[in-house]
Design goal:
150 residues; alpha+beta; three-stranded antiparallel β-sheet; 3 helices; 63% helix
Length: 150
């Protein structure tokens, strides 16, 4: 929160300084050699033209405050957008990692079901997998490879 307050006051100071500069007049004149000169102060003598500037700043205090509020809101919206983008990128990376793990598991299953006919069940007993079941699992492994591997 203190960063927002510092940012707010910094912007307020910057706008204040700019509005003071915006109110300064600019003068134009031609010197004896025919050179055109622009300055914030009129020439010491001779003819000159006031080309810009006003005695009143372009924004009132309330307009300046509203502009600052809008600027702070824009900065906060940009920060939120960046956080959302980081979340999306993180999710994509996590999904890619899971896809890679699934691909490796599918390749391992294909190798196992192609090479071996006997397997240990969850109780540790070695049994022969029926050929029909083995072929079914081979097809599942191939389908998973198509799904998860490049």
């Amino acid at each position: 929160m203190s960063k927002q307050i510092c940012l707010f006051w910094g912007l307020l100071l910057a706008v204040g300084l700019m509005s003071g500069a915006a109110g300064a007049a600019t003068y134009k004149w031609v010197d004896d050699q025919g050179n055109i000169t622009y300055s914030q102060t009129p020439p010491p003598s001779g003819d000159y033209e006031r080309v810009s500037g006003s005695t009143r700043p372009s924004n009132t205090g309330e307009e300046t405050m509203q502009n600052l509020r809008n600027s702070v809101a824009d900065i906060e919206a940009q920060k939120e957008q960046a956080r959302k983008q980081e979340d999306v990128e993180r999710t994509i990376a996590e999904n890619e990692k899971i896809r890679q793990q699934n691909c490796e598991a599918a390749r391992k299953n294909l190798e196992i079901y192609t090479t071996f006919r006997r397997f240990r069940d969850k109780d540790g007993n070695v049994t022969r997998l029926p050929e029909e079941e083995r072929l079914k699992r081979l097809e599942e492994a191939k389908t998973q490879i198509e799904t998860y591997c490049d």
